[in-house]
Specification:
Layout (H helix, E strand, L loop, with lengths): L6 H15 L7 H30 L7 H11 L4 H31 L4 H13 L4 H29 L7 E4 L6 H8 L20 E4 L15
């Protein structure tokens, strides 16, 4: 039998993941799902509103009441099954990431000779305190992806309504982009089916926006008087 000196590390991670996966059976789980769904729905509405504001500015149509455009888009997304699917995927990634984080702090604590109380405190902090890396990372990335999805949904609708519209999307880097994001920007514009996964990676600060003009009929109701 081979010498498996790291078995306890994998066991710690597996135990932490199994413990966190049980959150689905708790009384607070529906509220968690609802909160994540609302965050994603808001992100998608924000993406659509921002895209409309950019389209209005590009066409010299004056200011756009983003709050009104957001409210309309948010209302249109009520009951959209895509919102629930995105929320479920986000929660699964948070749980998996948190399981890995708890496993890491437990194995680090065991390696350093930490007491049970110290390891319990560290594990709790990994999922609930300022050190809860997975929660912040995956929720933030989910909202970023939702904003991009809102832009894409708008362009998809424009393409359906206008057979001449291509719904092309531009990828724009921001911050300190990685090589993959630089390549994504260089490959712009993209047809809807060719757009690379957005965001490209955790903490990605890139943005996407319409390459083509969005008809004024999509934003005329939200123009400031």
């Amino acid at each position: 039998m081979p010498d498996d000196t790291d078995w306890w590390k994998r066991a710690a991670t597996a135990s932490a993941l199994a413990w966190l996966a049980g959150i689905g059976n708790t009384s607070g789980y529906p509220a968690l799902v609802a909160a994540v769904e609302d965050a994603i729905r808001s992100g998608m509405a924000e993406g659509q509103a921002d895209a409309l504001a950019a389209a209005a500015a590009k066409q010299g149509a004056g200011g756009l009441a983003i709050d009104r455009a957001f409210t309309a888009a948010y209302g249109d997304l009520a009951g959209d099954p895509g919102v629930g699917e995105k929320a479920q995927g986000t929660i699964e990634r948070v749980i998996a990431g948190a399981g890995a984080d708890v496993g890491r702090v437990l194995t680090d604590g065991a390696g350093d000779g930490a007491s049970e109380q110290e390891m319990t405190s560290a594990a709790t902090g990994a999922v609930t305190g300022t050190a809860a890396r997975s929660l912040g990372m995956w929720i933030g990335d989910a909202i970023q992806a939702a904003i991009g999805s809102g832009v894409q949904d708008l362009l998809s609708q424009v393409s359906q309504d206008d057979s001449d519209a291509m719904g092309m999307t531009i990828w724009q880097t921001d911050g300190l982009p990685c090589g993959a994001c630089i390549d994504n920007e260089a490959g712009s514009p993209y047809a809807p089916q060719d757009l690379p996964d957005f965001p490209a990676h955790p903490r990605c600060q890139c943005e996407i926006f319409a390459a083509d003009s969005v008809p004024s009929s999509y934003f005329s109701a939200y123009l400031l008087d």
